[in-house]
């Protein structure tokens, strides 16, 4: 409201109200508050939208995984049989149940399970005969046969070994062999045999070697050499020249 009053000389003075008492002032204040409130609402809405987008992006991103360590136990790989691994097989004393011979399980761990198993007897002692065919560098006829007493080796036999000879073994070379010569001396002169069998009885190791290929003579010519404790004790030949 306006407040009016008369003063001297008929001059009319109008006395205005303070600004904060004016209606237009409060209308302006309300408009400003509404504008500010709208801006704050938009700001909050944008922030919520940005947060939601970041959350969705984080949830859709592929999760990082830590590789798990394998809990599987290591498995020993099966090896092929070589001349060296055959020579390392110890043959036990047959009359003492082969107690100091290589065990069956140790051979299975090294070479795998045998391809065949059979029962036999040696000097009236029951044996289990196991045959392996995974011979390195030899043909399908090559095999290793081991006889066991109480799971200890008492007899070993390696056959079908492929051997390449620079020269054929002659009858003269065969005749030059003497009793008492060592296994190493003979193999140095004639080369490796095609078959080797080893037995042990009463403290004596007997080795029988056969030469079937690269032998001079008629078809099927061959020779055999016998050792006791690695010394020549006998020999035989067939169709050599």
Comma- or semicolon-separated keywords:
alpha+beta, 3 domains, Beta-lactamase Inhibitory Protein, Chain:B, domain 1, 8-stranded antiparallel sheet, 27% helix, 241 residues, 5 helices, elongated, 10 strands
Describe the structure concisely.
With 241 residues, the chain is an alpha+beta fold. It has helices at 23-60, 83-87, 104-111, 171-175, 183-190, and strands at residues 3-6, 12-15, 116-122, 125-132, 143-149, 152-159, 195-201, 204-211, 217-228, 231-240.
CATH topology of the largest domain: Beta-lactamase Inhibitory Protein, Chain:B, domain 1
Number of domains: 3
Spell the H/E element sequence.
Answer: EEHHHEEEEHHEEEE
The largest sheet, given as strand count, sense and whether it forms a barrel, is: 8 strands, antiparallel
N→C terminal distance: 151 Å
Residues in helices, as a percent range: 25-40%
Can you characterise this structure?
By secondary structure, the chain is α+β, with helices and mostly antiparallel strands. The chain has 3 domains: 3-56; 78-159, Beta-lactamase Inhibitory Protein, Chain:B, domain 1 (2-Layer Sandwich); 163-241, 2-Layer Sandwich (Beta-lactamase Inhibitory Protein, Chain:B, domain 1), CATH 3.30.1450. Helix content is 27%, strand content 31%. It is built from 5 helices and 10 strands. The protein has helices at residues 23-60, 83-87, 104-111, 171-175, 183-190; strands spanning 3-6, 12-15, 116-122, 125-132, 143-149, 152-159, 195-201, 204-211, 217-228, 231-240. Strands 3-4-5-6-7-8-9-10 form an 8-stranded antiparallel β-sheet, with no helix packed on it. Strand 9 and strand 10 form a beta hairpin. The longest helix has 38 residues, at 23-60. It is elongated, with a radius of gyration of 51 Å. The chain starts with a strand and ends with a strand. Mean pLDDT is 81; it is low at 1-8 and 69-76.
